[in-house]
Amino acid sequence: MDQKYLSDDVFEQIKDFNNRDLTKEQKLLIDKLILNEELKERYNYFGLCKGCKQINTGHEWCQPCNSKHFQQNFKNWTGENSDVNKLIQESQINAKNKNEILEWIKYDRFENVEYITKGGFGTVYRAFWKDGPIEYWNYETNQWHRNGYSKDVALKSLNNSKDITTEFLNEINLHLEMNNSLNIVTIYGITKDPKTNNFMMVMDYADDGNLRQNLNRNFNWYENFIRLRYIAGGLRDIHKNGLMHQDFHSGNILGIKNGYFITDLGLCKPADEKNNNKVYGVLPYVAPEVLRGKKYTQASDIYSFGIIIYEVINRLPPYHDMAHDDFLAIKICQGLRPRFNIKVPQLFDDLVKQCVDADPSKRPNAEYLCERFNQWQWYRYNKESEISKQIKEVEEFNEKQPSFTKSSVNTELTYTTHPQAIYTSRLLNFNNLPEPKNVDDEVEFSESIEPIDFTKLNINS
Protein backbone atom coordinates (compact mmCIF):
# COMPACT_ATOMS: atom_id res chain seq x y z
CA MET A 1 0.00 0.00 0.00
CA ASP A 2 1.35 3.40 -1.02
CA GLN A 3 2.42 5.56 1.91
CA LYS A 4 0.53 8.88 1.96
CA TYR A 5 0.93 9.98 5.56
CA LEU A 6 3.33 9.54 8.45
CA SER A 7 2.15 7.38 11.33
CA ASP A 8 2.41 8.66 14.89
CA ASP A 9 5.16 6.12 15.49
CA VAL A 10 7.23 7.45 12.56
CA PHE A 11 6.69 11.03 13.71
CA GLU A 12 7.92 10.25 17.23
CA GLN A 13 11.11 8.72 15.85
CA ILE A 14 12.04 11.68 13.64
CA LYS A 15 10.40 14.71 15.28
CA ASP A 16 13.65 16.02 16.77
CA PHE A 17 15.68 15.66 13.55
CA ASN A 18 16.95 18.70 11.67
CA ASN A 19 15.86 17.81 8.14
CA ARG A 20 18.51 20.13 6.67
CA ASP A 21 21.37 18.62 8.69
CA LEU A 22 20.82 14.89 9.07
CA THR A 23 23.52 12.56 10.36
CA LYS A 24 24.39 9.43 8.42
CA GLU A 25 22.41 7.31 10.89
CA GLN A 26 19.41 9.65 10.66
CA LYS A 27 19.44 9.48 6.86
CA LEU A 28 19.40 5.68 7.00
CA LEU A 29 16.45 5.78 9.39
CA ILE A 30 14.57 8.23 7.15
CA ASP A 31 15.14 5.90 4.18
CA LYS A 32 13.74 3.04 6.23
CA LEU A 33 10.71 4.87 7.63
CA ILE A 34 9.65 7.05 4.66
CA LEU A 35 9.25 4.79 1.66
CA ASN A 36 7.31 7.17 -0.55
CA GLU A 37 9.89 9.10 -2.59
CA GLU A 38 7.72 12.21 -2.98
CA LEU A 39 7.16 12.35 0.78
CA LYS A 40 10.84 11.81 1.43
CA GLU A 41 11.83 14.61 -0.93
CA ARG A 42 9.33 16.96 0.70
CA TYR A 43 10.66 16.04 4.14
CA ASN A 44 14.23 16.77 3.09
CA TYR A 45 13.19 20.20 1.78
CA PHE A 46 10.50 21.30 4.22
CA GLY A 47 10.58 19.18 7.38
CA LEU A 48 7.62 18.45 9.69
CA CYS A 49 4.54 20.46 10.58
CA LYS A 50 4.25 21.19 14.31
CA GLY A 51 0.48 21.08 14.10
CA CYS A 52 -0.60 17.92 12.28
CA LYS A 53 2.66 15.96 12.59
CA GLN A 54 2.83 15.52 8.82
CA ILE A 55 5.35 16.73 6.28
CA ASN A 56 5.12 20.39 5.28
CA THR A 57 4.04 21.28 1.76
CA GLY A 58 6.37 24.32 1.59
CA HIS A 59 8.99 26.17 3.61
CA GLU A 60 7.44 26.53 7.11
CA TRP A 61 4.08 25.90 5.45
CA CYS A 62 1.49 23.13 5.90
CA GLN A 63 -1.37 23.39 3.43
CA PRO A 64 -3.98 21.38 5.43
CA CYS A 65 -3.30 23.26 8.68
CA ASN A 66 -2.97 26.73 7.17
CA SER A 67 -6.11 26.20 5.14
CA LYS A 68 -8.02 25.80 8.42
CA HIS A 69 -6.40 28.91 9.92
CA PHE A 70 -7.48 30.95 6.91
CA GLN A 71 -11.01 29.55 6.85
CA GLN A 72 -11.51 30.44 10.49
CA ASN A 73 -10.82 34.07 9.54
CA PHE A 74 -13.08 34.26 6.46
CA LYS A 75 -15.89 35.80 8.53
CA ASN A 76 -13.66 38.71 9.57
CA TRP A 77 -13.10 40.29 6.16
CA THR A 78 -14.77 40.91 2.83
CA GLY A 79 -13.52 42.15 -0.51
CA GLU A 80 -16.93 43.69 -1.12
CA ASN A 81 -17.32 41.54 -4.22
CA SER A 82 -18.22 37.85 -4.41
CA ASP A 83 -15.73 37.13 -7.23
CA VAL A 84 -12.90 38.80 -5.34
CA ASN A 85 -13.82 36.92 -2.13
CA LYS A 86 -13.89 33.61 -3.99
CA LEU A 87 -10.53 34.24 -5.67
CA ILE A 88 -8.80 35.11 -2.39
CA GLN A 89 -10.42 32.33 -0.38
CA GLU A 90 -9.59 29.65 -2.96
CA SER A 91 -5.96 30.79 -3.02
CA GLN A 92 -5.74 30.58 0.78
CA ILE A 93 -7.36 27.15 0.94
CA ASN A 94 -5.19 25.62 -1.79
CA ALA A 95 -1.82 27.33 -1.16
CA LYS A 96 1.08 24.90 -0.73
CA ASN A 97 3.46 27.70 0.24
CA LYS A 98 3.39 31.39 1.16
CA ASN A 99 3.81 32.48 -2.45
CA GLU A 100 0.48 30.99 -3.49
CA ILE A 101 -1.80 33.05 -1.26
CA LEU A 102 -3.66 36.29 -1.82
CA GLU A 103 -4.86 38.55 0.98
CA TRP A 104 -7.62 41.11 1.20
CA ILE A 105 -5.69 44.13 2.51
CA LYS A 106 -7.64 47.06 3.91
CA TYR A 107 -6.62 50.34 2.32
CA ASP A 108 -5.89 51.90 5.71
CA ARG A 109 -3.00 49.44 6.11
CA PHE A 110 -1.11 51.54 3.54
CA GLU A 111 0.72 54.79 4.22
CA ASN A 112 2.30 57.46 2.01
CA VAL A 113 0.41 56.47 -1.13
CA GLU A 114 1.83 58.39 -4.08
CA TYR A 115 1.16 58.39 -7.81
CA ILE A 116 3.93 56.83 -9.93
CA THR A 117 2.74 56.44 -13.50
CA LYS A 118 -0.15 55.74 -15.83
CA GLY A 119 0.08 52.99 -18.43
CA GLY A 120 -2.11 51.92 -21.31
CA PHE A 121 -4.68 50.20 -19.13
CA GLY A 122 -4.14 51.32 -15.54
CA THR A 123 -2.46 53.50 -12.94
CA VAL A 124 0.35 52.58 -10.55
CA TYR A 125 0.96 54.02 -7.07
CA ARG A 126 3.68 53.48 -4.49
CA ALA A 127 2.80 52.85 -0.84
CA PHE A 128 4.15 51.56 2.48
CA TRP A 129 2.39 48.41 3.65
CA LYS A 130 2.43 48.60 7.45
CA ASP A 131 2.16 44.85 8.03
CA GLY A 132 4.06 43.19 5.23
CA PRO A 133 3.21 39.75 3.80
CA ILE A 134 2.44 36.56 5.70
CA GLU A 135 5.46 34.29 6.26
CA TYR A 136 4.17 31.37 8.35
CA TRP A 137 1.83 30.34 11.19
CA ASN A 138 3.38 30.92 14.62
CA TYR A 139 2.29 28.07 16.92
CA GLU A 140 3.48 29.91 20.02
CA THR A 141 1.33 33.01 19.43
CA ASN A 142 -1.37 31.23 17.37
CA GLN A 143 -1.33 33.89 14.68
CA TRP A 144 0.31 34.66 11.37
CA HIS A 145 3.92 35.77 11.49
CA ARG A 146 4.70 38.57 9.08
CA ASN A 147 8.06 39.90 8.06
CA GLY A 148 7.79 42.56 10.76
CA TYR A 149 8.57 45.74 8.87
CA SER A 150 6.83 48.15 6.54
CA LYS A 151 7.26 47.11 2.95
CA ASP A 152 7.28 49.21 -0.19
CA VAL A 153 4.59 47.94 -2.53
CA ALA A 154 3.03 48.98 -5.81
CA LEU A 155 -0.72 49.44 -5.99
CA LYS A 156 -1.90 48.82 -9.54
CA SER A 157 -5.38 49.93 -10.47
CA LEU A 158 -6.98 48.89 -13.75
CA ASN A 159 -9.10 51.58 -15.34
CA ASN A 160 -12.77 51.36 -14.30
CA SER A 161 -12.19 48.28 -12.12
CA LYS A 162 -14.79 49.39 -9.55
CA ASP A 163 -17.04 47.11 -11.57
CA ILE A 164 -14.83 44.05 -11.34
CA THR A 165 -13.88 42.75 -14.76
CA THR A 166 -12.78 39.42 -16.17
CA GLU A 167 -9.57 41.13 -17.32
CA PHE A 168 -8.74 42.28 -13.77
CA LEU A 169 -9.37 38.84 -12.26
CA ASN A 170 -7.44 37.23 -15.12
CA GLU A 171 -4.32 39.33 -14.46
CA ILE A 172 -4.47 38.54 -10.73
CA ASN A 173 -4.85 34.82 -11.42
CA LEU A 174 -1.94 34.80 -13.84
CA HIS A 175 0.37 36.68 -11.49
CA LEU A 176 -0.61 34.29 -8.70
CA GLU A 177 0.07 31.31 -10.94
CA MET A 178 3.58 32.69 -11.60
CA ASN A 179 4.28 33.73 -7.97
CA ASN A 180 6.68 30.83 -7.45
CA SER A 181 8.91 32.13 -10.25
CA LEU A 182 12.03 34.00 -9.17
CA ASN A 183 11.75 36.18 -12.28
CA ILE A 184 8.14 37.42 -12.13
CA VAL A 185 6.92 40.33 -9.98
CA THR A 186 5.20 38.99 -6.82
CA ILE A 187 1.55 39.76 -6.12
CA TYR A 188 0.45 39.83 -2.46
CA GLY A 189 -3.22 40.63 -2.56
CA ILE A 190 -6.06 42.98 -3.44
CA THR A 191 -7.26 46.25 -1.96
CA LYS A 192 -9.78 48.94 -2.88
CA ASP A 193 -9.25 52.67 -3.30
CA PRO A 194 -11.96 54.32 -1.15
CA LYS A 195 -11.92 57.48 -3.31
CA THR A 196 -12.43 55.86 -6.72
CA ASN A 197 -13.80 52.47 -5.57
CA ASN A 198 -11.36 50.88 -8.04
CA PHE A 199 -9.88 47.54 -7.02
CA MET A 200 -6.09 47.47 -6.90
CA MET A 201 -3.46 44.75 -7.05
CA VAL A 202 -0.82 44.86 -4.31
CA MET A 203 2.54 43.89 -5.78
CA ASP A 204 6.29 44.22 -5.27
CA TYR A 205 7.48 47.76 -5.82
CA ALA A 206 10.20 48.30 -8.42
CA ASP A 207 12.73 50.45 -6.57
CA ASP A 208 14.84 50.74 -9.73
CA GLY A 209 11.97 51.54 -12.09
CA ASN A 210 11.52 49.70 -15.37
CA LEU A 211 14.18 48.40 -17.72
CA ARG A 212 13.85 51.34 -20.08
CA GLN A 213 14.68 53.72 -17.23
CA ASN A 214 17.74 51.67 -16.30
CA LEU A 215 19.40 51.51 -19.70
CA ASN A 216 20.62 55.08 -19.96
CA ARG A 217 23.62 54.27 -17.80
CA ASN A 218 27.09 52.75 -18.14
CA PHE A 219 27.53 50.11 -20.85
CA ASN A 220 28.96 46.83 -19.64
CA TRP A 221 28.78 43.44 -21.38
CA TYR A 222 28.79 41.53 -18.08
CA GLU A 223 25.85 43.48 -16.65
CA ASN A 224 23.96 43.27 -19.92
CA PHE A 225 24.30 39.48 -20.02
CA ILE A 226 22.98 39.33 -16.45
CA ARG A 227 20.03 41.58 -17.37
CA LEU A 228 19.19 39.41 -20.35
CA ARG A 229 19.54 36.22 -18.33
CA TYR A 230 17.01 37.51 -15.77
CA ILE A 231 14.57 38.48 -18.51
CA ALA A 232 14.98 35.23 -20.43
CA GLY A 233 14.46 33.32 -17.17
CA GLY A 234 11.14 35.05 -16.57
CA LEU A 235 9.99 34.36 -20.11
CA ARG A 236 11.10 30.72 -19.76
CA ASP A 237 8.97 30.36 -16.61
CA ILE A 238 5.93 31.85 -18.35
CA HIS A 239 6.33 29.52 -21.31
CA LYS A 240 6.92 26.48 -19.11
CA ASN A 241 3.51 27.14 -17.59
CA GLY A 242 2.00 26.91 -21.05
CA LEU A 243 1.41 30.68 -21.22
CA MET A 244 2.38 33.60 -23.43
CA HIS A 245 2.96 37.17 -22.23
CA GLN A 246 1.57 38.96 -25.31
CA ASP A 247 2.60 42.48 -24.20
CA PHE A 248 6.33 42.02 -23.73
CA HIS A 249 8.38 45.23 -23.79
CA SER A 250 10.93 47.05 -21.64
CA GLY A 251 8.25 48.95 -19.73
CA ASN A 252 6.94 45.63 -18.41
CA ILE A 253 10.32 44.57 -17.01
CA LEU A 254 11.02 46.00 -13.56
CA GLY A 255 14.24 46.44 -11.58
CA ILE A 256 13.92 45.15 -8.01
CA LYS A 257 16.90 44.63 -5.66
CA ASN A 258 19.47 44.39 -8.46
CA GLY A 259 17.38 41.91 -10.44
CA TYR A 260 14.90 42.20 -13.30
CA PHE A 261 11.36 40.86 -13.11
CA ILE A 262 8.52 40.60 -15.62
CA THR A 263 5.16 42.15 -14.79
CA ASP A 264 1.83 43.11 -16.41
CA LEU A 265 0.50 39.68 -17.26
CA GLY A 266 -2.93 41.11 -18.09
CA LEU A 267 -2.82 39.98 -21.71
CA CYS A 268 -1.02 36.76 -20.83
CA LYS A 269 -3.11 33.66 -21.54
CA PRO A 270 -2.85 29.90 -22.17
CA ALA A 271 -1.02 29.05 -25.35
CA ASP A 272 -3.98 27.00 -26.61
CA GLU A 273 -6.63 29.67 -26.01
CA LYS A 274 -8.35 30.93 -29.14
CA ASN A 275 -7.31 34.28 -30.56
CA ASN A 276 -9.87 37.09 -30.29
CA ASN A 277 -8.26 38.80 -33.34
CA LYS A 278 -7.53 41.99 -31.40
CA VAL A 279 -3.88 43.03 -31.17
CA TYR A 280 -2.70 45.05 -28.17
CA GLY A 281 0.84 46.12 -27.45
CA VAL A 282 3.67 48.53 -28.18
CA LEU A 283 4.20 48.49 -31.95
CA PRO A 284 8.03 48.16 -32.13
CA TYR A 285 7.91 44.98 -30.00
CA VAL A 286 5.03 43.22 -31.76
CA ALA A 287 5.98 40.36 -34.08
CA PRO A 288 5.13 40.91 -37.77
CA GLU A 289 2.91 37.82 -37.99
CA VAL A 290 0.83 39.18 -35.09
CA LEU A 291 0.52 42.58 -36.77
CA ARG A 292 -0.97 40.74 -39.75
CA GLY A 293 -3.59 39.13 -37.54
CA LYS A 294 -2.02 35.69 -37.21
CA LYS A 295 -2.31 33.75 -33.97
CA TYR A 296 -0.03 34.90 -31.15
CA THR A 297 2.43 32.17 -30.08
CA GLN A 298 5.30 31.82 -27.64
CA ALA A 299 7.58 32.52 -30.61
CA SER A 300 5.93 35.96 -30.81
CA ASP A 301 7.18 36.62 -27.27
CA ILE A 302 10.68 35.64 -28.45
CA TYR A 303 10.50 38.28 -31.19
CA SER A 304 9.64 40.89 -28.54
CA PHE A 305 12.61 39.73 -26.49
CA GLY A 306 14.84 40.17 -29.53
CA ILE A 307 13.76 43.80 -29.83
CA ILE A 308 14.42 44.23 -26.10
CA ILE A 309 17.98 42.96 -26.68
CA TYR A 310 18.57 45.69 -29.24
CA GLU A 311 17.28 48.21 -26.72
CA VAL A 312 19.55 46.92 -23.94
CA ILE A 313 22.66 47.22 -26.10
CA ASN A 314 21.81 50.49 -27.86
CA ARG A 315 20.41 52.08 -24.68
CA LEU A 316 17.72 53.60 -26.88
CA PRO A 317 14.04 52.73 -27.32
CA PRO A 318 13.47 50.96 -30.66
CA TYR A 319 12.42 53.28 -33.49
CA HIS A 320 12.43 56.27 -31.15
CA ASP A 321 12.94 58.73 -34.00
CA MET A 322 9.97 57.74 -36.15
CA ALA A 323 6.19 57.65 -35.88
CA HIS A 324 4.67 54.41 -34.66
CA ASP A 325 2.07 54.24 -37.41
CA ASP A 326 1.00 52.21 -40.45
CA PHE A 327 4.25 53.08 -42.24
CA LEU A 328 6.34 51.51 -39.48
CA ALA A 329 4.06 48.44 -39.33
CA ILE A 330 4.54 47.95 -43.09
CA LYS A 331 8.31 48.33 -42.81
CA ILE A 332 8.49 45.81 -39.96
CA CYS A 333 6.64 43.26 -42.08
CA GLN A 334 9.01 44.03 -44.96
CA GLY A 335 11.98 43.20 -42.77
CA LEU A 336 12.90 46.38 -40.93
CA ARG A 337 14.68 45.69 -37.64
CA PRO A 338 16.78 47.88 -35.32
CA ARG A 339 20.53 47.82 -35.81
CA PHE A 340 23.21 47.90 -33.15
CA ASN A 341 24.94 51.26 -32.81
CA ILE A 342 28.21 49.55 -31.85
CA LYS A 343 29.89 46.43 -33.17
CA VAL A 344 28.78 43.35 -31.20
CA PRO A 345 30.14 39.78 -30.96
CA GLN A 346 29.13 37.64 -33.93
CA LEU A 347 27.70 34.93 -31.66
CA PHE A 348 25.51 37.55 -30.02
CA ASP A 349 24.46 39.12 -33.33
CA ASP A 350 23.49 35.73 -34.77
CA LEU A 351 21.37 34.92 -31.73
CA VAL A 352 19.48 38.22 -31.88
CA LYS A 353 18.78 37.81 -35.59
CA GLN A 354 17.29 34.40 -34.87
CA CYS A 355 15.00 35.98 -32.26
CA VAL A 356 13.60 38.51 -34.74
CA ASP A 357 13.43 36.20 -37.75
CA ALA A 358 10.30 36.74 -39.83
CA ASP A 359 9.65 33.00 -39.64
CA PRO A 360 8.45 32.18 -36.08
CA SER A 361 9.59 28.56 -36.43
CA LYS A 362 13.22 29.71 -36.73
CA ARG A 363 13.25 31.61 -33.45
CA PRO A 364 14.94 29.94 -30.44
CA ASN A 365 12.94 29.08 -27.33
CA ALA A 366 13.23 30.86 -24.00
CA GLU A 367 14.98 27.93 -22.31
CA TYR A 368 17.78 28.06 -24.87
CA LEU A 369 18.13 31.84 -24.49
CA CYS A 370 18.29 31.55 -20.71
CA GLU A 371 21.03 28.91 -20.92
CA ARG A 372 22.98 30.95 -23.47
CA PHE A 373 23.04 34.17 -21.45
CA ASN A 374 23.76 32.25 -18.27
CA GLN A 375 26.80 30.79 -20.01
CA TRP A 376 27.97 34.06 -21.54
CA GLN A 377 27.79 36.05 -18.31
CA TRP A 378 30.92 34.21 -17.11
CA TYR A 379 33.01 35.25 -20.11
CA ARG A 380 35.40 37.27 -17.90
CA TYR A 381 36.49 34.08 -16.13
CA ASN A 382 37.09 32.05 -19.26
CA LYS A 383 39.34 34.05 -21.52
CA GLU A 384 39.62 31.16 -23.98
CA SER A 385 35.87 30.94 -24.63
CA GLU A 386 34.69 32.07 -28.05
CA ILE A 387 32.38 34.74 -26.62
CA SER A 388 35.23 36.17 -24.52
CA LYS A 389 37.50 36.39 -27.57
CA GLN A 390 34.78 38.06 -29.62
CA ILE A 391 34.01 40.60 -26.89
CA LYS A 392 37.69 41.54 -26.74
CA GLU A 393 37.78 41.96 -30.53
CA VAL A 394 34.68 44.18 -30.72
CA GLU A 395 35.80 46.32 -27.79
CA GLU A 396 39.13 46.96 -29.54
CA PHE A 397 37.29 47.71 -32.78
CA ASN A 398 34.77 50.07 -31.18
CA GLU A 399 37.45 52.04 -29.35
CA LYS A 400 39.14 52.82 -32.67
CA GLN A 401 36.04 54.35 -34.23
CA PRO A 402 36.07 58.15 -34.68
CA SER A 403 32.67 58.57 -33.03
CA PHE A 404 33.56 56.39 -30.06
CA THR A 405 34.90 57.71 -26.77
CA LYS A 406 35.01 56.03 -23.40
CA SER A 407 32.69 58.69 -22.09
CA SER A 408 30.11 57.75 -24.73
CA VAL A 409 29.44 54.44 -22.97
CA ASN A 410 29.81 55.77 -19.46
CA THR A 411 27.48 58.75 -19.61
CA GLU A 412 23.76 59.16 -20.09
CA LEU A 413 22.59 59.35 -23.69
CA THR A 414 20.52 62.26 -24.84
CA TYR A 415 18.05 61.74 -27.65
CA THR A 416 14.78 63.14 -28.96
CA THR A 417 11.74 60.93 -29.23
CA HIS A 418 9.38 61.42 -32.16
CA PRO A 419 6.09 62.92 -30.97
CA GLN A 420 4.21 59.97 -32.48
CA ALA A 421 6.48 57.30 -30.96
CA ILE A 422 4.19 55.59 -28.44
CA TYR A 423 5.62 53.27 -25.78
CA THR A 424 2.43 52.38 -23.88
CA SER A 425 0.21 49.46 -24.82
CA ARG A 426 -2.73 50.20 -27.06
CA LEU A 427 -5.01 48.59 -29.61
CA LEU A 428 -3.12 48.09 -32.89
CA ASN A 429 -5.29 47.82 -35.97
CA PHE A 430 -3.52 47.66 -39.33
CA ASN A 431 -4.97 46.41 -42.59
CA ASN A 432 -3.43 44.84 -45.70
CA LEU A 433 0.06 44.46 -44.29
CA PRO A 434 2.54 42.59 -46.53
CA GLU A 435 3.70 39.05 -45.86
CA PRO A 436 6.57 39.10 -43.29
CA LYS A 437 10.03 38.58 -44.71
CA ASN A 438 13.66 39.02 -43.73
CA VAL A 439 15.97 41.51 -45.37
CA ASP A 440 19.61 40.62 -45.90
CA ASP A 441 21.94 43.18 -44.42
CA GLU A 442 23.09 45.37 -47.29
CA VAL A 443 25.41 47.38 -45.07
CA GLU A 444 27.87 45.25 -43.16
CA PHE A 445 29.23 46.66 -39.92
CA SER A 446 32.86 47.18 -40.82
CA GLU A 447 33.81 50.76 -41.53
CA SER A 448 31.50 52.83 -39.36
CA ILE A 449 29.43 52.61 -36.23
CA GLU A 450 27.19 55.53 -37.15
CA PRO A 451 23.49 54.68 -36.60
CA ILE A 452 21.55 53.96 -39.79
CA ASP A 453 18.58 56.12 -40.76
CA PHE A 454 15.92 53.47 -41.36
CA THR A 455 13.57 55.89 -43.09
CA LYS A 456 16.12 56.16 -45.90
CA LEU A 457 16.79 52.43 -46.16
CA ASN A 458 15.25 51.03 -49.33
CA ILE A 459 13.59 47.76 -48.44
CA ASN A 460 10.80 47.79 -51.03
CA SER A 461 12.59 45.52 -53.45
Explain this structure:
There is one protein chain. The protein has 461 residues and is α+β, with helices and mostly antiparallel strands. The chain is built from 15 helices and 14 strands. The strands form five sheets. A six-stranded mixed sheet has the order 1-7-8-6-3-2, covered by helices on one side. The protein has a two-stranded antiparallel ribbon with strand order 4-5. Strand 4 (134-138) and strand 5 (143-146) form a beta hairpin. The longest helix is centred in the middle third of the chain and has 20 residues, at 221-240.
Structure at a glance:
By secondary structure, this protein is an alpha+beta fold. It has three domains: 8-56, no CATH class; 67-204, Phosphorylase Kinase, domain 1, CATH 3.30.200.20; 211-456, Transferase(Phosphotransferase), domain 1 (Orthogonal Bundle), CATH 1.10.510.
